[in-house]
Amino acid sequence: MKKTSGILWGIALVAIGVILALNALGITDINIFFDGWWTLFFIIPSLIGLISERDKTCSIIFLCIGVIPLLCYQKVLDFSLLWKLLVPAVIVIIGIRLIIGAVRPGGRRSGGDTEGWVSGSGSGIFSGAKLDFSGEEFKGTELNAVFGAVECDLRRAIINGDCVINAKAIFGGITIYVPADIKIKVRSTSIFGGVDDKTGAGRSGEHTLYINDTCVFGGIDIK
User: Fold this and answer.
1) Is the CB of residue 159 less than 8 Å from the CB of residue 181?
2) Which of 13, 22, 45 is nearest to 168 (CA)?
3) What is the CA radius of gyration of the chain?
4) Is the separation of the CB atoms in 155 and 136 below 8 Å?
5) Residue 196 in contact with residue 172, Cβ under 8 Å?
6) Where are the beta strands (DSSP E) in the chain?
7) Over the stretch 72-120, which tens digit does the pLDDT of each residue have?
8) Distances (CA, A) of 209 to 110, 116, 138, 170
């Protein structure tokens, strides 16, 4: 899925670059700074997330946060309806996500699929969540912080092979505590956010923890 995400981001950036170049040459006159253009910072990552991510809750929420204001700027909707529609839409999406999470079969997968989570997942959506894998075999997990915070503690986890954390921090924060005897590799897609790896360079270990993250006005700390 990360490969798909990278391809989609590449296509989006190439398209923007081509449009800017054609405008500069006078071949086209496409105004990418239209009224409400800033909503694309929510819409584009959300659309890519809907295609490439397994858990689409965050993508749907931020698609609403981008599309509804854009419709207001384009005078399709009245600005007086902005919060009247946006807040209920987010609440409904979160409610549906909670229902699906409650009725869906257990979160563990067999095998070593490093693209998804296999040791459970944590989501802090307008709230906080804490995962502690002490004494448990850890193979990977998925972390989502949306206007909230998530803490994942792996310091006393049992790690017998390479593993993956797929993390998404959107107007939220994620803290990941890692053991000293594991290598860390980060692959980040960030928009007004980022990852702070405080573990230091040159770490050695038999196994590697791969952290694939998306940060939008949010951050991830690795300690």
Assistant:
1) no
2) 45
3) 19
4) no
5) no
6) 121-125, 128-132, 140-146, 149-153, 163-170, 173-177, 183-191, 194-197, 208-216, 219-222
7) 988 888 988 888 888 888 788 777 766 765 555 444 333 334 444 445 5
8) 18, 14, 10, 22
